[in-house]
Design goal:
The complex is a heterodimer of chains A (about 80) and B (about 160). Chain A is mostly helical. Chain A has three helices and no strands. By secondary structure, chain B is mainly alpha-helical.
């Protein structure tokens, strides 16, 4: 299974979540759409971590905090 | 066709079908249950990507913790207002057009991206390394995360306050 397969899956899930956020009328429905989008992003991060051999994606998924600019790599 | 490929396509189908059900079903309670299915399927995707630690965290925190809270919130709210909450949607066409446009934009990047093979070094269990990194190079990040949780807690208190 290639990286692109995972990224396409995550992209589809993200746009489904976006559709939910745009169309739902109450707050809980919008929240569920946002959850879908967040999980799609997490799949992307873990997939990149796996295919680059870099722990940063796993930590980012764990904490969802913008740390990527620190440029720390576990493999080097 | 390897076992990983079969697992991936099965999980992908379940994931996308459940995601569509979350945003389309009119019953709010069913939508939350479908979201639970989405979260479990996401955990299986993490497992396929060789990350058993995130698989466990996803199941514990999301599929159990967050789901319990959301279900409780819905049941208590329905009890308070005394009627079933019905999910309604609006601007279905506009939403579909915007979502499709975003996907086409992302797919344009994906088509041009180079093909990568899985990194061999990432196959080992990364849990100790994640733990060390969280108290080492990412200690400040971890503290900021705690601060964020406190802010969220204060926000919840603010919303739950009684009117004086």
């Amino acid at each position: 299974v290639s990286l692109n397969a995972y990224l396409t899956l995550a992209a589809l899930m993200f746009v489904i979540g976006l559709f939910g956020v745009l169309t739902r009328r109450n707050a809980i429905g919008i929240l569920l759409g946002i959850e879908l989008m967040l999980n799609a992003v997490n799949i992307n991060l873990v997939a990149f971590a796996r295919f680059h051999g870099d722990l940063l994606g796993l930590i980012f998924t764990r904490s969802r905090w913008p740390t990527s600019r620190w440029g720390w790599r576990s493999s080097s | 066709v390897t076992l990983e490929a079969v697992g991936f396509w099965v999980v992908a189908a379940v994931l996308l079908a459940s995601s569509l059900a979350v945003v389309l079903t009119p019953n709010l309670f069913h939508a939350v249950l479908y979201l639970a299915a989405v979260l479990v399927a996401t955990a299986v995707v993490f497992l396929l990507l060789g990350s058993p630690f995130l698989f466990a965290v996803q199941l514990l925190l999301y599929a159990v913790g967050v789901m319990t809270i959301v279900v409780f919130a819905i049941m208590l709210t329905e009890r308070l207002i005394g009627e079933r909450i019905v999910q309604t949607s609006r601007h279905l066409l506009n939403g579909a057009v915007v979502a499709a446009a975003v996907f086409v934009g992302v797919a344009g990047f994906l088509i041009r991206a180079p093909r990568l093979v899985p990194h061999p070094a990432a196959a080992a269990d990364a849990t100790p390394a994640i733990g060390r990194a969280l108290v080492g190079p990412f200690a400040v990040t971890l503290e900021l995360l705690g601060l964020l949780l406190v802010v969220a807690l204060l926000g919840a208190l603010y919303f739950a306050r009684t009117d004086e």
